[in-house]
Sequence to fold (431 residues):
Amino acid sequence: MPYSAARRDRSVRRIRSARLAAAVALSLCFSLSAAHSAAPPLYERLAPSSRSLDPSALQAAEIAIDVGVLAGADELALDLFDTVPTFRRVDLETRAPGDLVWRGTADDSGQATLTLRHGFVAGYVTLGTRAFEIAIEAAGQLLIEIESDGFAPCAHEHHADPPRGLPPMPEDFADRRSGDRGALVNIDLMSLYTPQARDAAGGVAQIETTIQGAVDISNTAAINSQSNARFTLVHTELANYDDTGDVFADRNWVQANAAVNALRDEHSADLVSLIVDNGGFACGVAFLMGNEDPTAFNPFGYQVTARSCAVGNLTFPHEHGHNMGLQHNPQNGAPPASAIALDAYGHYHSGLYRTVLSYSNPRVGGCTRQPYFSNPAVSFMSQPTGILNARHNQRVLDMIAPITADYRSATEIFTDGFESGDVTAWSSSTP
Fold:
């Protein structure tokens, strides 16, 4: 018996309703699947922080961190104020339970180096031309968007070191090339901190995590730049010394103090840093290796870094770079005749970025400091990070690293694959 028009309408409506229900169910399924697979957030952004008033901060906020997600997360969502990019893990180095560094990349040339230690997180994050620090303060953990031009300079901008009386550099030394790319060289670091730096960070665990974060971002720069050098923190300790507000006085004290030198020997530290809270007019200062015999530089392997600059301004690797002969960009560095090599200089691209050793004042427009040592063979944001025969910190770093590593006896490290030095994964397209 043929259907009536009314029955046909009811049948069509039932079919449409069934299709709609199926479509809704499928949509919910996809939504639940997407929600299930979404990257977990590392932290929740809370109230604005008074740190936003600092010259080196564009904005700042208190954050509540979920430290439990770092060890197992393949992806992390990082709330960067007006955007929440997903960072994909490319490296996880575990030193001990609850002591690790998580490295990841994101679209728009994003990179994150996140250090977990003692239940606190220190980190440096970049996204395009923007930079952020996950900082540790006495008031708690903060997210800070960095204003690079707001940091104090390296003290070498104001004063040159007096002659040290070291033997001159061997005539053929500057022409030597770096060694085998696969042979990593470990440099052991000791870091002391003043009571003022400890208190400003919130305690011993907090300042030690900040220092480890500074070491980890140093290694990120080495990895990014295809350098053979790696840095290992072998000891931290409270210094029997107060801030003076004069980084030159602080540097001279840490270099000359007999107790510090005994600690350096005890822990076989190739290089030593002192972390202060008040750097005065500068973020840091180091003894700068110049046109002199690097094997005789051992007694001058010391630097001072202000706590608030150590991670957020990359001052810690900047100053240890000076200990190993690395210069600022040519406009702010020593003349070539005084440098360890003609290509020992940092690099910058106006409006885009600068490398760890470079200053920003020659450029026009924004110039975020990125974790790279200049290397003409490595590009970032589609631009080479160095200039052949002119700005090649990585070559000089690799040339000096074996000498620096011999300042004290070696410490065995690299037990979990970090020794590979494989930088092919450092791409925003890596899952």
Notes: The chain is about 25% helix and 25% strand. Helices lie at 5-37, 195-201, 204-224, 247-256, 258-266, 307-310, 315-323, 393-405.
